[in-house]
Amino acid sequence: MPPLDDERFADLFRRHYPRLVGLARRVLGDADEAQDAAQEALLALRKDAVATRSDDDVAAWLSRVVTNVSLNRLRSRRRADVRAQVVAARDVRVLPDEPDDEVVVADERARVRTALGVLPERQATALLLRHAGHSYREIATALGVAEGSVGVLLARGERAFRRAHEEMTR
Amino acid sequence: MMHCVDSTALRAHLDHTDPELEEHLDDCAECTALLRSVADDTGYARRTLALLEPGDEAVDVDVDAALAAVRARIPSVAPVASVSAAAARRRRSPGRRLALAAAAVVVVLAATVTPAGRSAVAQALDAFRGERLQPVMVDMAAWGGSFGPEDVEALATLGDLDIRALNEPERVADVATAEAIAGIDAPGYEGTPDRFVALAPGVVRLVLAVRDGNGVPVELDGAALVVEVPGAVGAIFAPGDGPPEVVLGRSGPLVVRAEGAPLEDIRAFILSREELPAGLRTQLAAIDDWRSTIPVPVPIDGPGWREVEVGGRQAIVFGDDTGLGALVIRQDPAGVTVVGGRIGVSRALALAADA
Q: Is the ipTM of this complex over 0.85?
């Protein structure tokens, strides 16, 4: 298909970029990396047929792609300990209040992200989107599943997430 | 009267109250207990995920600056090699073997791309040997739009490609014949495969040559990359003529040698080529152990994947919980084992564990 024309791309970029950065930041914790993930998702949109579909479809597709990109980056961090430490250090810097609390919160956030990273991608995406306020319909569109299947993904995902997270906090 | 429901319906009920189910819960202790368990998990996830940074409101972004940065990454004209790519397009027809060979070369070239001078130790071993896997994220849509077979062949125009010693897979009667052709043992399997395929080991040789506009530096003129394509065996379960239900395959180690110039210099040159998508190039450049790491392309908008251990060995599994299909790639001490098909992830992992 022909690439998205520049005017439409710019329009979509301006409308979705802040939201996508927010979604990515929930997964990644790092604002700069979140911007990279959002840009990667929007660049992917330029070549995808979904760009010609409705705004709702485009929004849902972007939500899924930015979440996938972010989860993939999250998993890649496990192979790059040094880089992960840098990101954790950034987390600490942006948190307010007492240093001890900051470290505890940063550690806890790291555990949450690690637990998310071990879930099957659809489950992790469903969880992240739902707990970021997306409707079942939006999640279904994003994942390309029937609306009735969202409950399955959430139920399984929440159970798996709890197990993984509890395992890490023991 | 409503019957008992599973956790899926109860999870949805937490978000969208179903009056009929609510009535049922009044009289059903079993469903009520299950609801408590589901609600417990949901509450746990909600509380825990709330620890993550808030979304939209907390992110201060300069959208116009980001848009400008992204626009700068969008290629507005054809890549550098497009002149030769046009010629390559015209020559493409004999192409299946050539394209396969060129693709193999490009994958290996990509595998060897990192910044020059990274490792002094690596100077001692001027070869690549695949010993571990590393996923690299690939934007398939962008790849398809900006990096096609023409670009693969354009890269092949960097020199003279000799594929005379490259073999093609062949269908064989039994596993013993397949193993004899490939020179390796077949993966383990249960049942009787419907057919076997085998690939004999081969060699592809790319000799770089300075030619009009192809960008090969003088110091690399005549240098060669020699790709030792490993033998491979495949056991295929495909009743009838339809697509396979399950495929189990194994190949020997992939080895690449440089002749006439350091492998690192050839890699640095390949890194500079604009035919490679920028995002892929960046990830390849970040691979530390590039002399022994096989990059495995992972579509950013494709099926889920994760890194796992299978029988104590590193593996990557593709697929999700839909059961529509799954693929496991496992790194072995001397090669790679692949299991895939129209099966679920658990089944694929179980087969890979026994393979």
A: no
Separation between Cα atoms, residue B96 and residue B119, nearest integer Å: 37
pLDDT in tens, chain B (355 residues): 678 888 888 888 888 888 888 888 888 899 999 999 999 999 999 888 888 866 544 467 888 888 888 877 765 432 222 223 333 333 333 444 444 444 444 444 444 443 322 232 233 335 677 777 877 777 666 555 555 556 666 666 788 878 878 888 888 888 999 999 989 888 888 888 888 889 898 888 888 888 777 788 888 888 888 888 888 999 988 876 667 788 899 988 888 888 888 888 888 888 777 777 767 777 777 777 777 888 877 766 566 777 888 988 888 888 765 556 788 899 888 888 999 887 878 888 889 998 8
Name, in order, each residue with C-beta under 8 angstroms of B321's C-beta and a sequence gap of 6 or more.
A120, A122, A123, A153, A156, B344, B345
Nearest chain A CA: its distance from B63 CA (Å):
6
Contacts B142 to A, Cβ<8 Å:
43-44, 46-47
CATH architecture, range A6-169: Up-down Bundle (1.20)
Of A64, A151, A162, the CB nearest to B9: A151
> How does DSSP classify residue B59?
-
Tell me the whole-structure pTM to 2 decimals: 0.47
CB atoms inside a 10 Å sphere around CB B97: 12
Chain B CB within 8 Å of residue A64 CB: yes
Contacts of B48 in chain A (CB under 8 A): 112, 115, 161-162, 165
Please give the sequence-ordered ranges of beta strands (E in DSSP) within chain B, or none if there are none: 127-129, 132-138, 159-162, 170-172, 195-199, 202-208, 224-229, 232-237, 246-251, 255-259, 293-299, 305-310, 313-319, 326-332, 335-341
DSSP B213: T
Considering only the beta carbons, identify the residue of A18, A19, A44 that sits closest to B142.
Answer: A44
Q: Do A131 and B46 touch (CB under 8 A)?
A: yes
